[in-house]
Amino acid sequence: MMTTIGRAVERTSALPSVPVSAPKLRKPLGVAMVGGLIFSQVLTLYTTPVIYIFFDNLGARFSRRNERADKDHAREPQPEHA
User: Fold this and answer.
1) In angstroms, rounded to a whole number, what is the distance separating the alpha carbons of residues 41 and 4?
2) SS3 content of the chain, % helix, strand, coil (to 5)
3) Rounded to the nearest 5 degrees, what angle is found at the Cα of 78, between the Cα atoms of 72 and 80?
4) pTM for the full predicted model
């Protein structure tokens, strides 16, 4: 988060109007860079918890299956070895 904020502040220097001698692509490039940084940060902040919760639920589902399978396996009579 701090890196994104730092880079966005650094890149805002490309946003204000610049002298005529500077390339005309500087302002659109600055807008694209700052917009991309903000978009990627927001996307990361929303998708990371969602993916974590998905895998946590998936792991819980598999652990419940394994617990049931272990209980069912424990109930079956074991063959005696001579």
Assistant:
1) 7
2) 75, 0, 25
3) 180
4) 0.48
